[in-house]
TrEMBL record:
Location of the Aldehyde dehydrogenase domain: 14-472
Superkingdom assignment: Bacteria
Residue ranges crossing the lipid bilayer per the database entry: none
Protein name: NAD-dependent succinate-semialdehyde dehydrogenase
Keywords, ordered alphabetically: Oxidoreductase
SUPFAM superfamilies: ALDH-like (SSF53720)
Record-listed E.C. numbers: 1.2.1.-
Protein family: Belongs to the aldehyde dehydrogenase family.
Active site location: 251
Organism: Streptomyces gottesmaniae
Alphabetized InterPro entries for the sequence: Ald_DH/histidinol_DH, Ald_DH_C, Ald_DH_CS_GLU, Ald_DH_N, Aldehyde_DH_dom, Aldehyde_DH_Superfamily
Single Gene Ontology MF annotation: oxidoreductase activity
Amino acid sequence: MTDTPTQLFIGGDWADAADGATMPVDDPATGEIIAHVADAGAKDAQRAEEAAVQAQEEWARTAPRVRSEILRRAYEIIVERTDELAHLMTAEMGKPLAEARGEVAYAAEFFRWFSEEAVRIDGGHGVLPDGRNRMLLSRRPVGPCLLITPWNFPLAMGTRKIGPAIAAGCTMILKPAPQTPLSSLALAAILKEAGLPDGVLSVVTTSRAGEVCEPLLRGGRIRKLSFTGSTGVGRLLLAQSAEAVVRTSMELGGNAPFVVFEDADLDKAVDGAMVAKMRNMGEACTAANRFFVHSSVAEEFGRRLAERMGALVVGPGTRDGVDVGPLIDRTGRAKVEELVADAVERGARVLVGGRTPEGPGCFYPPTVLTDVASDSRLMDTEIFGPVAAILTFDDEDEVIRRANDTPWGLVGYVFTEGLDRALRVSERLEVGMVGVNTGLVSNPAAPFGGVKQSGLGREGGRVGLDEFLEYQYLAVPVR
């Protein structure tokens, strides 16, 4: 921890906040403070904005191959430092080291993917239908960007946004979540080491998000916002972005349905449920929230899932053999406790878990509820914890209607051995992504994002680069 930067990274330099403010970083497994980092204010944001604006023109002219090689070098450094970055991530957000190492690999892959895409930005050429003009299409970087990342995947959400911005030729200001600033600061140090020019990336850690972000969005010099976080905060940022017509990408909340049909392979379904529910202790926007299981297999599915969930070992993420680390903070745990209590009051049965352990840290046990009432609060709230709520259904049309009965539409999961049914149901689900007989959809090469109030735009894949590019059309007379 002693080598991890704790200052702001602005214009290629490390600096304290202008007013000297700092903020603590807690270990959610113990509640102990592990570091103090600079707590930026409005003056720091202005400095970062100036650095991004000043660097934009020259960075946009940089050869695609140069941008590609910077990303490739950063990818290689991340891979080399997997253990160091994993321990840092576990310390500040709690996930077990095995999961943290997995996130490091996932995060690095975004840089490798976009290093390969950086040299494939192209345009178009042709004669317009009236024959008078030739049309030349070119792609240009959208300009300076504000990137806001969440605490649950602190390294991967950074690389998922920084990677395409670098590939496109955009300068950036990254504002990480205040709970997990250390991973982002470590990433900035890696990019500087990889040769990223000064001013292209600034990292502004802060507990004063409104003071930092609102002036940037309303000022007109930031031309792109990429945000991952809650739908409520996303609405606020969209309103602030409207004044200067800032281009936005929003990856917001989810309420994922997990549908198990009567012909599903229950071994596959339970395996998928463990991934879709327990990845990152359930603190993921892709986490399965509502388990709709056909009544003919619901009892067996619930029994198997409870057995698997009950066998998981809960504890500090650095301890050998631990499967489930702490939740991010006491506020997050209290929310999970309240949602479970509400479901039980409405008639749900607890198959496993459901009791908060005593002692330090923000731990909550893997929990399976059955006979969950449809009006329970956890049916229309993103749980963000290790709680699986099982409901039953008997009819395909019925379960599709219930699965779609939510303002969110990020991801859904469908388990069935029938290909026709898998395709039919997937096409009717109002979501941006579907896992068919799998509990994991995230991949750097695939477009990640949702519909309805789960967001705007996509991250990852080829289209993830498009979010940071504009078209320019040239009309050239035919002579």
